[in-house]
Each structure stands twice: as C-alpha cells, then as structure tokens.
DNA sequence: CTATCGAATGTGATATTGTAACTCGTTCGA
DNA sequence: TCGAACGAGTTACAATATCACATTCGATAG
C-alpha cells in the first residue's frame, strides 16, 4: 500500500505551517499572501483565482485584482503550499505543506467537492510508464471526475 | 503489461473510421464536422477550439465561429472521436476511435507536442483507488507534463 | 540619515477560453 | 404539407489568464 501518515494541519496551525514553509524557501510571508492563503484554505471546494480575489477583497475591504492573486497562487503552487486542479481551472490549499506528493484529486461533478488521495505506488507507476515511453515526467496530473460518496 | 494492439488510422483512413463511428452512434457526418475533424487531425499538437476555428475558416474560406467548433468538439469528445487535454485546454483527435480507453497524455512543456499511451492496468489502478475512497470514477484524467524524448 | 535597489503589489488593458440565447434553414417523418 | 428535430450562424457575454508598466516599501550600502 502507498498509505502513510501525514501531519495534517488546519486553521491557525495550517497558516503557521504555510508561513514557515514559505520562509524556509527564502520567500516573504506578507499580509497579502497570508490573506490569499487563508481565503483559499477556507473554501471547501477548489477555488478559482477570481473566487479568491473576491474573498480577499472582502476580507481586506479593498479591491484586489485577479492579477495579484494569480501571482501569489503561482508562488504557492511552486512552493507546494497549494495545488492546481487542472480539470477545474481552480486551486486548493495543501493541508500538509512540506510533504511532497503527486496527488490524486477526486472531483465530484455533482457537488464540486474535491478530496485528494496520495498513492505513491500509483503515481510512480505513471511516472514509470512515461519514462518507458522516453518521456521525462515533471508533473503528473492525476484527477478523477465522478461522483462522491455523499452524492450517491 | 497493459499493452495491446490497436488498429491505428491516419489520413483518409482515419477520416473514414471517424465518420463510421459517428454514424454508428446515430449522428450525422456533416461537411462541417468533417472539416473540424480534419483540421484537428492535422495538428501535431493539442489544438484549442480557437486554433481549430481559424484552421476551418481558412479551409472553408468563410468565417467559422469558435462557438460552432465547441459544439462539434463536445460531440466528438462524447463519441470518443477526440479527447480533451485538460491541462492544456485543448483537444486532440483520437487515432483509434471505436476503442475506448482512459488514456494517458504525455505533454512536453518545451515543444508542446503530445503523445498518448494506454495502460489499462494503471488506469484501472486509479479507478480502484478512487473506489476505495468511496468515489465513483466516471472519467479519470491522467496527464503528465514534462519533457519529451526529442527535447532532451 | 539618505540614496537606491529590488521585491511585492497595484492598475488597467488585453488575450484566451468557454457559454447562453436566439435565429434560420433543412430534413424527415407523421 | 405540416411541424418537430437537428445543424449551424450570429451576437453577446462570462470566466479564466497574462502583460506592461507604475507605485510602494523595506533592506541596506554609503
């Protein structure tokens, strides 16, 4: 099995872990970045950059352009604080920053909720299959569209 | 191994196979659909709906709106004549219509070229992992971003 | 202390991707 | 021959993403 334990964070603890992670990379943990991260973490579904821009605008009580949000989301994705759900053009916070996986998203087409599982055996299988085809895998995108348990 | 043989089509033969496949589904093979399919098949990379609209406009020497192309691409995707590459917001023709797979795309971030492999073992592994998490998989999206053999 | 340098953010414009609503003409069967 | 179904055209619009350039602000060399 590819199962293993993570140190899962939430709320205050998650914010703190994210801040540490970013600083460890030599990046700053600014108010803007904190606001984007918190807004992202509070969504229970993948959020688009525009969703986040709106949430942050309310939170800070001034208009934040999508532009700025994209910049920060890109940073978060490269530093593993967030992940992009390609098939939804949206983003989710990483509940265990510091832990690197090729994660597998399960996206419910009915309610939009998204969970993710890590299965290193599967993802390395994908990487191996790519390698066997003479392709150097950098970022596997494994997402499953379907119906979640509560939408049956 | 999940390897197996396909009847690969190309050019005239591919067009013909696509037409048959669509008609078998009770859909019409119209001039417009043929033009979209041929334009799509001639791209050596995933093509966006707008790329195709432009190509078809030239081919037919009149303006074709992206709108119409989307309708036809949607039809192609549901009938397995084409597939959508989620991480590229683009489409590719299916070189073996009639044969149904969860296919795995390998997309080169350098040159944009895309190949695809079928590995039923891997994709069923993904489906099983989803099922184990209480999720009913409908459409697995497995795409690998990286560097292709000729871009090393 | 001040000059200045670079990182972060702001701002507005624009490009790209994707839908909706409505129309018209053709086909095909009742 | 009527009309329902379908393919396609057209316009408008919504959602997603990027670009170029201006401004702010903190760190630090002088």
Structural description of this entry:
2 copies of one chain form a homodimer. Chain A is α+β, with helices and mostly antiparallel strands and 152 residues long. Helix content of chain A is 42%, strand content 20%. Chain A has 5 helices and 5 strands; from the N terminus they run H-H-H-H-E-E-E-E-H-E. In chain A, the strands form 2 sheets. The first copy, chain A, has a 3-stranded mixed beta sheet with strand order 4-3-5, with helices on one face. In chain A, strands 1-2 form a two-stranded antiparallel ribbon. In chain A, a hairpin with a 5-residue loop joins strand 3 and strand 4. At the A-B interface, strand 3, helix 5 and strand 5 of A face strand 3, helix 5 and strand 5 of B. Strand 5 of chain A pairs antiparallel with strand 5 of chain B, so a sheet runs across the interface. Chain A binds a DNA duplex (30 and 30 nucleotides) through helix 4.
Break the fold down into its secondary structure elements and pairings:
The structure is a homodimer of 152-residue chains.
Chain A (H helix, E strand, L loop, with lengths): L10 H14 L6 H12 L6 H12 L5 H13 L3 E4 L4 E4 L9 E6 L5 E5 L1 H13 L3 E12 L5
Parallel strand pairs in A: 3-5
Antiparallel strand pairs in A: 1-2, 3-4
Helix pairs in contact in A: 1-2, 2-3, 3-4
The structure holds a DNA duplex (30 and 30 nucleotides).
